[in-house]
Amino acid sequence: MNLLMLILSVVMTWTVDSKNSVSGEGTYPATMTATYSCSYQKGTVRANDTATITFSNMGGMTIEQIEVYLKSNKSAGSGIITVDMNGSSVATIEGSLKDWVGLYDNTNYHPFSLLQTSISDVRELSVSLVGTANSLYIEKYVIQYTPASVKSVTLMKGNTEYATLTEKSAGAGVILPDMADEGNWKFAAWSRNHFYQISTMPDSWILPGRFYPVEKDTLWAVYAYDMPYKEAFATTLSDGLYLYADTTRMIAMSGAVSDGITENAAVNISDPSQVYDITFDEISETAIIYHPATNTYIGYNGLSLANEASLWKVYHSGATTAFYMQSDNKTYILWPDYIKQIYVNDINEFIPCAALVRTDNLSSSPTVLISAEPLMEEPVFTCHPENGMGIENAISPQQKEYNLPIGNYRLIIRNGQKFMQIQ
Predict the structure, then answer these.
(1) Per DSSP, which regions of 261-377 are E strands?
(2) Would you say 190 and 208 are in contact if contact means Cβ atoms under 8 Å apart?
(3) Which residues neighbour 312 within 8 Å (Cβ) at sequence distance 6 or greater?
(4) Least confident residue range of 6-10, 37-41, 369-373
(5) Which residues, 6 or more positions from 113, have their beta carbon under 8 angstroms from its beta carbon?
(6) What's the half-sphere exposure (Cβ side, CA atoms, 13 Å) at 256?
(7) 3-state DSSP percent of the chain in helix, strand and coil, to 5
(8) What DSSP state is assigned to residue 61?
(9) Mean pLDDT (whole number) for 370-374
(10) Taking phi first (over 0 means left), then psi (-120 to 50 degrees means alpha), and beta for anything else, what does residue 347 get?
(11) Cα–Cα distance, 195 to 216 (Å, whole number)
């Protein structure tokens, strides 16, 4: 230990009071907590007994040395001591009291040092003794340490310094804020890594909330591109996975047919029940609608929806796509956002659903197909939403594969090919 460390370091002592408690003396952080447990009694550790002391909220201190004060039986007493810091093992020591301090002693306690070198930025510490031969006795733990200094973190938004946050006290941490979205770029997290565009989460992915800075910490705001649904509206028709929605309130058809209707819900690409596999004829005038999540079809029987592979007629113009059928020279559209009136116990109830609805003007329909496949592509992350799309970090090419859980199956789309796999 250098002279400066010697001058700055302080000592805390934790004495065993009972099998479940210790008392502290000396200087230690006000927020720190200490817990102790012994599987036998007080500090007595027989063969196969365990005694463990655990510290938390230590504030990032530098621990210079840990001593445990031990005595033994008159001619025996051994065990294994392990020291963990911040969840990782830093020391494991096996032997007897004679190995450690030069003699067995059942009268006097002897200090035994557990560390060979100092360890910095310690927030959690545990010291555990497992007995291997009767018996060892713990009196106290003495920890020499250097308190943590107050630290700061610089927050960057692109190339601009956004803010500098400083701890109110050493080891207290700071609160990382949420950032406002930038158009279609949605704030996602903070990162120690700076980059333009990547398609996988950065190695350092830090969510808003309490953060414990280290020396000279700098974090960049990370944004994820949120593709507007409008960009995925199908303007040309081809076989694929789609949501069928009414753009008036962005409500999509959902699920399988039940009692002549299907459910509906707010458009959500992450909901497998809204995704349909639609197959068109060669000129896209007719289509068959299949629901992979339930292995059923969306068809019709009379003027009600049915679980049948019916051939739907297709109206398509620009972004508008509508599925319809005709009966008695009348046209009925598959309408994703319909309110059906039913009677239950002589009471009117109104059920939101998708159903067949009479129409005289398909060209005014607000229905669209939303392609699910582009929206399932790899995400785009950036620290520079102001640059928009197009500046990419170099990454190794990978095969594109999308996985959609569907009940007991998984729909896999790999390079445009679809596979159904049992989960």
Answers:
(1) 261-266, 276-280, 286-291, 296-301, 304-306, 312-317, 320-327, 330-344, 347-359, 367-371
(2) yes
(3) 286, 287, 288, 289, 299, 323, 324, 325, 334
(4) 6-10
(5) 65, 66, 67
(6) 13
(7) 5, 55, 40
(8) E
(9) 79
(10) beta
(11) 19
